[in-house]
Please model this.
Amino acid sequence: MYTLLKNFLHLFRSHRGYTWATVLTLGICLGACLAILGVVRKTLLVEPPYGNPSELVWVRSSMLSQKINPDLIRTISREPDFFKQFAAYSRNLRNALETGENRYSLANCTLLIGDIFHVLGVQPIIGRGFLDQDFIEGAEPAMIITHEFWQEAFGSNPDIFGNLHNLENHPVRLLGVLPPRI
Model:
């Protein structure tokens, strides 16, 4: 082992161009590996931002045009031995949300049946979450917005919660804002 190391050092001293090329190549490769590892760690290895991810089941329709069937959802959610908690959502819809006097922002809206945030163990950082009475048929429409949308569309204004806002010309009560990254 000592002889092998001695020969490598002699080779590097006598061929400086080769030495610099080797060191530079190793440095670039190490930097690229660390950058890739950072991306993988941020996207794949970080725990999801909600509690008990191992207990979640996601059921997805393969038909993009299929709508939520409220009767089926109610039947599934009432079955006591099937799921501990249950919530459903539809795919995102782009809607115009009034964010100020004569100001509108395009919002990606998701229709919920059941409190998906409670199922995920996520609570709003400002305002309140959904309550059981928010999901009763005929209840006043209510919404919770993401932290990013709150910053961009409302300028992080804490006074907007509890107020009615027009979503496609329908009044909707703004309840709260979710934590960042949700």
Observations:
- The longest strand covers residues 93-100.
- The helical segments are 2-14, 16-43, 70-78, 116-120, 147-154.
- The radius of gyration is 27 Å.
- The mean pLDDT is 78.
